[in-house]
Predict the 3D structure of the following.
Amino acid sequence: MQKRSISLLYPNGKAIENKENGLDSPNITDDVLEELGLNSVLDLKSSRLCDFFTMDKDVIEYRQSVFKDLLDNEELCDLLVKVSPILSDIAELRRLSIDTETAENYLYSITEIELYVSCMEQLYEGMKPLTEKLSSNAFKELSACVMELTESDYYRDLNERLKELTSRVREVKSVTIGVNLDGRLHPESAGVLSVNNEYFKSGELLQKILRLDFRSNEYTCIASLIPFKKGQSDNQQSALSNAFNNALNTVFKSSMRSWKKVVQGYILENADFLIKLMPEIEFIVKGVELIRSLSANNPLCFPQVFPMAEKAFTVKGVYNPVVATKLDDKMVQNDFSFDKNGMFYVLSGPNRGGKSVITCAVGLTFALCQLGLCVPCEEAQISPVDGIFTHFPTGAEDTIDKGRLGEECARLDEIFDYVTENSLVLLDESLSSTGSYEASYIASEILCGISMVKCRGIFSTHLHELASMIDGINERCAKNGGAVIDTLVAGMEEGQRSFKIRRQKPDGKSYARDIADKYGISYEHIMKKIQKNQ
């Protein structure tokens, strides 16, 4: 039989090889996923989410077709959920099995075959009615493979042999042992007389003698049965167990040798591809669950994928999917794009105005796209990135703290060790550990560096005066061929946060007033207190 290699996530052997060699894997770490919150909504047990990211356009489109099949055929996803525990059991048996000729391993191999046959039968029965409905190459190939295997003469012969071997083993209920005694009636040697298909029963010697019916009651003992390990030392238990095992191994030795050839010659070639699919199945099942959860109240779409060099990113109606999973209502949506007049943005606005939410939303949109999933938008055109780099608050209070400032600067500096023009950089409230003058100066230096790298990204900040420095930063960097940096504002409508993000220059005074209102130190608030105390 030909060894099979099928993947639900990679279209061909070259893509799989590139993945194994890390050639098409973007720089997206677990820490980044934690800061974006993606691990909380795509929680994998048997693998790491960051292992599934790709920047290969063909791989992304291949996965999109897989998810479309799953979304169009709910029973297909249910089938994958159903066979996953069986595959897990096969993998566990392989882990427990040792390459020795013992009765225990003989049973392991038979159980593995039984599980394999059960898995193949469920896949066959589940996929056969769907064959004409499938559109993705991945599921078409998997379906064809399952049909070929289960309809083959070899598979039918395997089933017949399995039934024969299983009946021999599963019917073994007891062993008759002959024991030789020495002059003191101590056991001297022992051997197996027979392997039986009936259990022995407890009995009384007197009853057996009175019945005079020894032949018809050959499985009734002359005394009560005693639990195997009762009253025995560890050495005695070990000795007796070894005696039994050696006897059974002798009985099944020839069967084990012939069965081992069957396992090696068929199962290792035709079941291995199923075992290798386990992490992929878990990932796509979790992905479908997330898509269905989000689509209940919010729009989703499969993005149109562009080559990385085009740096495309234009989305309509984007929102933060992690936040959306925690809400019952539809989220506020925004239109967003990176273009030649703004590859990087400084985003300012009122506290709790949605700056962090939209910053994460952009990062999550790239991430979901590069997993091959739907993205949280109505429409999207996206070029993959070669890495996502984040610098988010650590959770400490905003204080003038040289230690914390040094740590922030070190983390920001580290980004420049890896970032390229095809990367995405997301900075959220960076440099909040120092005063606004120092922070604005350091931020302007960072923005100049980002302009020269020409990467895409967002700097969400409380430093409203930084926005007024953007023209000077662009003028300084333009001389050396830097990319244009633009400004975004988290909007206010009639004094209320709208959570709408607009591409415009910020009005620092209105946000200063908002801050004063937030902390209860606006003129109106102070006057109310004065009047109340008079």
Summary: Residues 395-402 have pLDDT under 50 and may be disordered.
